[in-house]
Design goal:
- The complex is a heterodimer of chains A (about 110) and B (about 110).
- Chain A has about 110 residues and is mainly β.
- In chain A, about 0% of the residues lie in helices and about 50% in strands.
- Chain A has strands at about 5, 10-15, 20-25, 30-35, 45-50, 55, 65-70, 75-80, 85-95, 105, 110.
- Chain B is built from no helices and 11 strands.
- In chain B, the strands form 2 sheets. In chain B, strands 2, 4, 5, 9, 10 and 11 form a 6-stranded mixed sheet that branches. A 5-stranded antiparallel sheet of chain B has the order 1-3-8-7-6, with no helix packed on it.
- Chain B is globular.
- The termini of chain B are far apart.
- The chains are: A mainly beta (about 110), B mainly beta (about 110).
- The interface of A and B includes residues 35, 43, 56, 90 and 102 of A.
Amino acid sequence: ETGVTQSPTHLIKTRGQQVTLRCSSQSGHNTVSWYQQALGQGPQFIFQYYREEENGRGNFPPRFSGLQFPNYSSELNVNALELDDSALYLCASSHRDSADTQYFGPGTRLTVL
Amino acid sequence: QKEVEQNSGPLSVPEGAIASLNCTYSDRGSQSFFWYRQYSGKSPELIMFIYSNGDKEDGRFTAQLNKASQYVSLLIRDSQPSDSATYLCAVTRSGSARQLTFGSGTQLTVLP
């Protein structure tokens, strides 16, 4: 069974740029959620995708957007990067029938200078 | 009031002791409860989940849930230095998006 994978591992961008992060869900999982984790804090929910549709969204501005593809992989796009966007971005996958039980990928560490 | 609260620690216990980690939540509509372990620089790893009042045991780990008191705990028996990590409590509520709401985590150090 293949676990959740994310790319890239690390990324450095400058303020105002745009970034795309990628996630492949665990085999058999059809739901993908994205979280942002600032240093010393718990992860915060950004949004969730199921059947290629956004299925819920946390308190994040519209410059955070996403996609889910037919193979259940997903992208997180962030436009107009701000310094506060520097964080660990986590993708979690789950099966719709047990959507509460989410398994995280290794994360992408984004630094905005 | 935060939705999910944990003592930030650090919590130190000697090797072989029982480590007790606590979490309270504010939303009575919370349905599912999770404990994740996060090593420094790594992503969260699911170690336990519990849905019903009472205890649930898995190896050295026991999760305890008391919905009336809005309290969930994690006990780690025979603590090992490899258990040293941050432990994150998370809850979900009913609804179409089963988002996890996390506490800030408790840092546990097991001393050899």
